[in-house]
Amino acid sequence: MSSSEEMLEEGTLVSHLVELRTRLIRASLSVLAIFAVLAPFSDKVFKIVANPLMSQMSNLNGLEGATGNQMQMIATQVASPFLVPFKTCMWVAVFIAMPVIIYQVWAFVAPGLYKQEKRFAIPMVVSSILLFYLGVFFAYAVVFPLMFAFFTAAAPEGVAVMTDINSYLDFVLAIFFAFGLAFEVPIATVMLVWSGLTTTESLGQKRAYVFLGSFVVGMLLTPPDVISQTLLAVPVYLLYEVGIIMSKLMVKKKAEEAAANEGTDAG
What we know:
Radius of gyration: 24 Å
Structural class: mainly alpha
Shape: flat
Oligomer: single chain
Distance between the termini: 44 Å
């Protein structure tokens, strides 16, 4: 390899690293900007995140009356009452800034794609963002109320449920990411077909394995109760079916475009 070629490769590598740094800085600044807006309202943000559990505790406390075992959230560490709300704001800022983060990733990768690949990738990026938010919303609005109602109601008589706020935050973050990523199944399915690693026919033949695997994933990613496992497994399998439908439409469109191009070349 000549010295000029070595200098060219080195310059290309440096330019890519500079571009990567720029994208990372922009993504980080977007998170910090949102965090700066949310920080003054950290207590309210934490209350919103903790509402699924706190509402169940309030309902049970109201049923048991003043003489019953009062359920409440507690802080077991000295700095938790101050730090946990700000930690919650930071993670909420990451969730809100996810479109910007994904766009920065896309902007870094896009120059290396062909025009046809860019047309395909843009709907995938938008769909992945929407599906991630849909998974998080499904966990917050559907899974958490049912899950916490089961946990609090299943507490033995004489045992008051007192959840540490830091442990609660870690728990819900894990569930949020689990459902957010699980709802990306259609995108992963389409990408597998688009890359040529599999076909829609092969995916259709593996339905039984995917159905069983969905419940295994639900068992691994959710607490050990049937409700939360089922609430993750069923949407994952249904989204797998959606991914197969999307893949068939994509294959059909590619075939039509290829036929149109052959007709143009023949003419």
